[in-house]
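the four lines:
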Amino acid sequence: CQLEFFPGIGEIQYEGPTSRNPMAFRYYNASEVVHGKPMKEWLRFSVAFWHTFRGDGSDPFGSATKAWPWEDASLDPMEMAFRRIRANFEFLRKLGVEYWCFHDRDIAPEGRDLAETNENLDKVVDLALDLQKQTGVRPLWGTAQLFKHPRYMHGAATSPQAGVFAYAAAQVKKAMEVTLRLGGLNYVFWGGREGYHTLRNTHLKTELDNLARFLRMAADYKRKIGFKGTLLIEPKPQEPTKHQYDWDAATTIGFLREHGLKNDFKLNIECNHATLSQHSCEHELQFSSSQGMLGNIDINTGDPQTGWDTDQFQISDPVEATLLMAVVLRQGGLAPGGFNFDAKLRRESTAVEDLFYAHIGGMDALARGLRNAARLLEQGEVDSVIQARYSSFDEGIGKDIVNGKVGFKELEKYALSHPDPIEDLPSAHAEKAEIVLSMYVQ
Amino acid sequence: CQLEFFPGIGEIQYEGPTSRNPMAFRYYNASEVVHGKPMKEWLRFSVAFWHTFRGDGSDPFGSATKAWPWEDASLDPMEMAFRRIRANFEFLRKLGVEYWCFHDRDIAPEGRDLAETNENLDKVVDLALDLQKQTGVRPLWGTAQLFKHPRYMHGAATSPQAGVFAYAAAQVKKAMEVTLRLGGLNYVFWGGREGYHTLRNTHLKTELDNLARFLRMAADYKRKIGFKGTLLIEPKPQEPTKHQYDWDAATTIGFLREHGLKNDFKLNIECNHATLSQHSCEHELQFSSSQGMLGNIDINTGDPQTGWDTDQFQISDPVEATLLMAVVLRQGGLAPGGFNFDAKLRRESTAVEDLFYAHIGGMDALARGLRNAARLLEQGEVDSVIQARYSSFDEGIGKDIVNGKVGFKELEKYALSHPDPIEDLPSAHAEKAEIVLSMYVQ
Amino acid sequence: CQLEFFPGIGEIQYEGPTSRNPMAFRYYNASEVVHGKPMKEWLRFSVAFWHTFRGDGSDPFGSATKAWPWEDASLDPMEMAFRRIRANFEFLRKLGVEYWCFHDRDIAPEGRDLAETNENLDKVVDLALDLQKQTGVRPLWGTAQLFKHPRYMHGAATSPQAGVFAYAAAQVKKAMEVTLRLGGLNYVFWGGREGYHTLRNTHLKTELDNLARFLRMAADYKRKIGFKGTLLIEPKPQEPTKHQYDWDAATTIGFLREHGLKNDFKLNIECNHATLSQHSCEHELQFSSSQGMLGNIDINTGDPQTGWDTDQFQISDPVEATLLMAVVLRQGGLAPGGFNFDAKLRRESTAVEDLFYAHIGGMDALARGLRNAARLLEQGEVDSVIQARYSSFDEGIGKDIVNGKVGFKELEKYALSHPDPIEDLPSAHAEKAEIVLSMYVQ
Amino acid sequence: CQLEFFPGIGEIQYEGPTSRNPMAFRYYNASEVVHGKPMKEWLRFSVAFWHTFRGDGSDPFGSATKAWPWEDASLDPMEMAFRRIRANFEFLRKLGVEYWCFHDRDIAPEGRDLAETNENLDKVVDLALDLQKQTGVRPLWGTAQLFKHPRYMHGAATSPQAGVFAYAAAQVKKAMEVTLRLGGLNYVFWGGREGYHTLRNTHLKTELDNLARFLRMAADYKRKIGFKGTLLIEPKPQEPTKHQYDWDAATTIGFLREHGLKNDFKLNIECNHATLSQHSCEHELQFSSSQGMLGNIDINTGDPQTGWDTDQFQISDPVEATLLMAVVLRQGGLAPGGFNFDAKLRRESTAVEDLFYAHIGGMDALARGLRNAARLLEQGEVDSVIQARYSSFDEGIGKDIVNGKVGFKELEKYALSHPDPIEDLPSAHAEKAEIVLSMYVQ
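prediction for all of em together
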């Protein structure tokens, strides 16, 4: 006998753009083919277990506001863990989403020691595995929570305590095993405590070297156990620390390259993290993609005027949604990655229905972007304008530059014998480009 | 007959901390030995020709405010160029500074074409060479101005026009030759237009690849002409562009490493650029230094509440000055680099004396920091606390981690058989560290 | 014989949303009635003379990039002034815009002294008046440029020099007279230098008091000459100064109220200034409107990740355009104010056509927002949800609170005798509100 | 039998600037007379009960890290409340601080209903009163916590639910009574939930009007019960809300003036809140003071590169400390207000000693600033330079402007008949001012 936690809500249906039903999709039609693939294959949506089933509405200035139907303070922690897992699968089924993401400690409680904690985790995974079989759902990715427990207050892989490094390694090992067992497609590292509050007590180089050691061990262990998924690093510039080592895409890729780890990892770009690092989300996606390193998107949005991670669901600007989807389409999709909703309800959104509204709004915003982006790419107008802009590198001196046939000496000779390029410099037509883009955004 | 542009001002003297004379040094005593070297060897100050002799007080909302004695609109551009060079050397002599920095186009005007422009530059360099011989002054670094002229409006090395790339190459070639001829110790790249205003018209990867090609040609040409100085890249996150490719130290080092250029370049860190990228200046210095990449400091400070480059002279906080100098002392100095005052008078500081006040204030602030930092390092209290904090990696399982002797499997075994590290986790004592630091700041 | 500066371009036509012609309107159909009024009455667009006819593409790191057809360095300043005015009216006619905005010093050059400067201004105004009669165009607003000339480097009304205050007063007096003569509908104060770079040399209270004195004199003089237009203050938090006194809407309204000037002024909200002060533009509009103080909008947009005023044309996000227009519709329009494009081409947009693209893109974005906002208000769904949310203040204890019938004592009695409000606290449904809003955005 | 929670720590002593003991004062010497008053009268330090005795080290990404000796999970909530109060008074005595600040809900737990909650509060206050009598300590201010409990999730005074407004009124009523009973010198309003997350569900004007109604009731009730202390509002721009109504000093004072409440309230300026609103703390102090509205300082500092409230203890920059103290000295002190340490240990500072280090560092930083500021004012050099800068308003046309004797007409006449002020415009000497300031900072 399966409990039902969302009794009044059925499977969410696609009703098309003219629908006025907030409990229906207006743009996301899972099986509809767009740009050569069903929408669900482009979008590969995932629900984040921690925000949706562990988020209680507390914030630095306030206590919990949510009273979810599956929470019951009278039950023991393992019973509660099972109930949340059941709620998760009911939610996924009704929302029509095929992936979920989890932290080890969100799905199962800590025990008296690591051994018992691991046992707790195994028991919850047993149940999840059953429910996965019934529903066809699987993890987009798993991860270890290395930031909440006080043992990680000085860092996990970058803790000054070797014992903490060891404990974190043990935790990631187990989390990778569990992800493999559940058929997870990727494994994520977000280093919430891998950074510093103050340089006054920090040895920067030691911490960075230890972080590299940790990641190398992870890559080795992945191979050892035959986990075929992608290892992903999720950059964030700050918060909770003043400086987080995986600051942004460029920093993270540079670090991986320095330590010979670039082929073992890809990036999981979160939009709100991108803007906190003063980049547009599109920039982070384009940059990662141009390096062959875009593996997954933690899709959310922030408040453009606040300096912390608000993790909101719906990218309300359809232009932005179009641009993000265009990056994904250009690289042929994200698989085995996808779009994970690393997003939370506003603290004062306390109704069970709000969980559906939030995900529906987020999914529809991206589906709208996907439809627009498909038109944008299929028409080719925008791409061909950009290509033409760089065409001087396809022939003559430009081609010689690209092919490494010339150096400063030859280029000086060229410059001295040709008219000053200012005489023939075209306009960038930036404003026209905005108009053209807007034509594709519906 | 040498013109005198600062007739009422003699050579600035050291008068010690109790002096109340704003036209004297209170902390900077050039030949006084601090931490084993004369102060002038640690500090290697340089005056930036562009701000000091070409800055006219204009800003995006206002026209020029300065009426410097060497400026004379009735003279032809070359005569004016000579006067400014003379003013520069008089100023350096009176200030007691042994280095200067310049952009090619600041010291000599453009001619009708590149050939004439190069001739103009040579004539000015002839005069500078004479004056250098008389004074013993030399360039800390030279550079090419690749951002002011409209031909570079779409970028220089990253312009979509191959002809612009070639022109920029020719300009850098000449600027490197001229720097070599003047005995310059370093050569700097600041890519003011190497970035984008909008991704709507930009092919990111093409631009980044071209930037790498350009830098590779520069490194090749340096070797070809036997220039022994350091090539330096100066990161800045944005302004004038929305996104500048040399965003911060980590991004720039990552880029150099990607393109096999890391051994050919070091970094020139500017403090105001650091804070614009949401890093403390100390962070950028420490990070660069830990990578062996800190070659020079463009010393200035910004306004902590504004989002653009204010390029102010004096680091008013003695704690910050102490921390910056501590990084320099720890790496044994910056030579052949130094501290270049990439700083400008406030627009409404219009008296000739203000040029002296600004540099004196800036020099004294760093000299004060140097004295403090020397005490800090000599006492060793701070460093030993940090070292102790990481001592668990000097033995046992920590040493095994560092030496690569263990992996996840061994660490799990360790974690399962040892007490949870939370049981013995020390405090970070961050607030005590602040007190201890403050003891060294006078 | 009228010169033609835009020979290949005719009057811009409305072609509807499916048009792919960037030189046509897709949403702005001037005479089409939307929400009870022709679109042109809601939108009252204005072209900013300074950006469009005086902007040369220079920025803090670069010189001019534009070579507009009306500019001719061989002509004397007054001839050039006449040509620019003619270009302005040709541009307005072809764009189909009925208003323009100007600074005194943009339309006419300074003379040898104030008297001659005023004569210059009168001569240009004579021509503008002629052209206005021919075209039916008039100024949305005029203003005095009190920030560019070095005499204002310490401030205009807030200069420490009484002579500068007097000069600024004389300049505003003349600019108001000229605005009146041209039939201008409003007069604007933007205090670009009314602020400080550093408190080290500033007497805050003296400067604020002088600013109030200046505005009082302006209000007096307006009455004296019978100018019926609105006096508007345009807030901006910083840039060029570190702190600008008219920081944001709340600060400015508070200042006006303090000095008894609230009835004499309204606000001119600029969207990019709003975001620089960490407010959304919608916030500034709603707040001003709720105070009865929203008089005009300087419509533009900034870059959400940069800390300076980029003054871009097109609000690319149709959701934002919808929200801004909804504020305007709710207060019944902006007249006698309107929407002034205080926006500039990107530096590297150098073609004459770009001036059209930029304005067309900006106008269409708002027209799209207007159409959406009209649907939003006519449907009433959003407003009624908000109204219902506050309905507890329409009756019972809520009504007593609003009517001032109860104090702490009565409310304590109420609280002690009623259930804790937590027991019946509704969800905010913030995510649902986002979905509902998106339904109206096309 | 009094428990002792800090057994190894005695009363903190003044040892002078050369001391190397981090458990001693180097600058703060309570009874030493500086600038005419004992230091303790200028500084009037207060410990914040909530951070020091209720802060557990949790943050949005992590759980509690502190294990304070007074905490004992086996005790009932009231017993725990008593222990914390005892710890507070022991701490104050050893630190040598005479004031404390509290939220109602921090010192006593909620009961089953408001009546029981009030009883709980009374019992804790009974104990505090006893301990106050023994120690001579009293509250610098009290306040009601209207942001943590979920009933306030939509706001307290600005909640859309009238029942919540009533409940909040009852809570403030009781907190004011309790503050009066304890001999508290001020009462503070910080509106942590008085703002909005999104305008999508918010009626701005209704909320602002209700906030004014609430404050008016508070002022009325203060008079009714004969509370002679100052009512203080503490501005903060955002966090936890996206927009907080008491944004900054100017906004808050404008709001009070609008609603006729300016004479009933003063401001409590928090430095970290100042910088979050893009103002320097000195700006907020100077502005409030110039309006006669500076009543108290919540002294702390933030991280200049992060966008949230870090609430750190020690203002590490002695220049800043000097400037802040100079504002306080110029207005003759803060009494009945003072300096409340609204600051928290870093999450990973977990030793009981850290509570002392943090407060000692904070107190000493301000004491150092006080000593510097006293020299600055006594010497008069800085103030007289500023005064001279504005001297043109002391006579002639400047005096006529100040006295309202002239308007635009007379000023135009003056401007036309006098030389352009540019001819005689002095330099701002901003850089010299920095040097002069640095002379006073030791």
